[in-house]
């Protein structure tokens, strides 16, 4: 699937080298104010001061950590989304470094399945807000609910391609779920929300209870206290990894198949956390209506949920399996293939 949104950057390749300018963010001794100031100066070409007007004063939830407001570009009236982090849930120093890191990561990404960052604005509050094109189709789960003809396979392939791109650049998303995937006007899934993402060349993010808020249903076995016996000695620090992204990807595909969030029969985060830590996997959806959907459940979701992280497929392998499912469907649908 290809995107229809133009990014201000010109390069695009899954094989791009990881960003190497990490000095600003790796030095824990640096003042957070100076870290953010330096990043904003380096990204001055993305400063949309005086170019964005907010529409209304009521935003909608943009996940666990932000609110989304609608706005327009003053130059052409184009609708945009203004994403403001909820300052009250972050310590001030952490907030500034988080904004700096997200700007650092997001501004360098260029892929058809990553929502481009148009820029930032400091006109809507004490901290920079992120500005992107407005996606009227909403999240990918909202999209499949309102568009029953949408191909879950194609959407799953697009999400997988975006994640593979991040992983090849040594970036862990750390918050993969349907609410962090928007859909473009042409039906292309676009990954968003890099607030928890980390460059692996900088550090690994330890999943605290606050960071995991609202995300338990997508958290991997090892992040919920479940550690295979053979890895007990290596389990002192539970961190978000490429493998935990793969687990969450499987949960996201499940959302599209079941049309609801994982473990929907469990009502509290504690129940979900406990169930995952004990090795309980989601129930098979009762509404799978095609060979393709059953293959997504069996051949994509289930391998992503191996208790042993090293046994989970990589996102490159997931994409290969998705292409195999697509190929099988094309052979079946071709009247001259000889298959019945």
TrEMBL record:
InterPro entries for this protein: Kinase-like_dom_sf (IPR011009), Prot_kinase_dom (IPR000719), Ser-Thr/Tyr_kinase_cat_dom (IPR001245), Ser/Thr_kinase_AS (IPR008271), Ser/Thr_Kinases-Pseudokinases (IPR051681)
Signal peptide: none
Superkingdom of origin: Eukaryota
Extent of Polar residues compositional bias: 1-10
Pfam families tied to this protein: PK_Tyr_Ser-Thr
Renumbered residue ranges of the record's region Disordered: 1-29
An example Gene Ontology molecular-function term: protein serine/threonine kinase activity
Protein name, entry field: Kinase-like protein
Organism of derivation: Rickenella mellea
């Amino acid at each position: 699937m290809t995107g229809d949104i133009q990014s201000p950057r010109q390069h695009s390749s899954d094989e791009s080298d990881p960003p190497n300018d990490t000095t600003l963010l790796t030095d824990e001794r640096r003042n957070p104010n100076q870290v953010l100031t330096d990043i904003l100066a380096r990204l001055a070409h993305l400063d949309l001061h005086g170019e964005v007007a907010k529409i209304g004063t009521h935003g909608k939830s943009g996940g666990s950590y932000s609110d989304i407001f609608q706005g327009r570009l003053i130059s052409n009236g184009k609708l945009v989304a203004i994403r403001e982090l909820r300052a009250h849930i972050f310590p001030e120093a952490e907030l500034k470094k988080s904004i700096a890191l997200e700007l650092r990561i997001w501004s360098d990404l260029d892929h058809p399945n990553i929502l481009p960052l148009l820029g930032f604005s400091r006109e809507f509050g004490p901290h920079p807000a992120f500005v992107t094109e407005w996606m009227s189709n909403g999240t990918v789960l909202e999209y499949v609910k309102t568009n029953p003809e949408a191909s879950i396979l194609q959407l799953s392939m697009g999400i997988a391609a975006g994640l593979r791109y991040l992983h090849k650049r040594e970036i862990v998303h750390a918050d993969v779920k349907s609410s962090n995937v928007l859909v473009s006007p042409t039906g292309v899934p676009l990954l968003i929300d890099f607030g928890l993402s980390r460059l692996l060349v900088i550090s690994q993010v330890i999943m605290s209870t606050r960071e995991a808020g609202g995300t338990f249903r997508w958290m991997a076995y090892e992040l919920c206290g479940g550690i295979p016996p053979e890895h007990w000695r290596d389990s002192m620090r539970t961190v978000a990894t490429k493998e935990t992204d793969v687990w969450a990807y499987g949960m996201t595909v499940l959302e599209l198949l079941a049309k609801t969030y994982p473990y929907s029969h469990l009502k509290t985060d504690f129940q979900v956390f406990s169930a995952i830590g004990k090795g309980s996997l989601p129930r098979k959806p009762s509404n799978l209506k095609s060979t393709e959907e059953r293959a997504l459940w069996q051949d994509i979701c289930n391998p992503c949920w191996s208790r042993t992280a090293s046994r989970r497929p990589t996102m490159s392998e997931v994409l290969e399996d998705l292409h195999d499912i697509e190929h099988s469907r094309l052979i079946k649908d071709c009247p001259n293939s000889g298959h019945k």
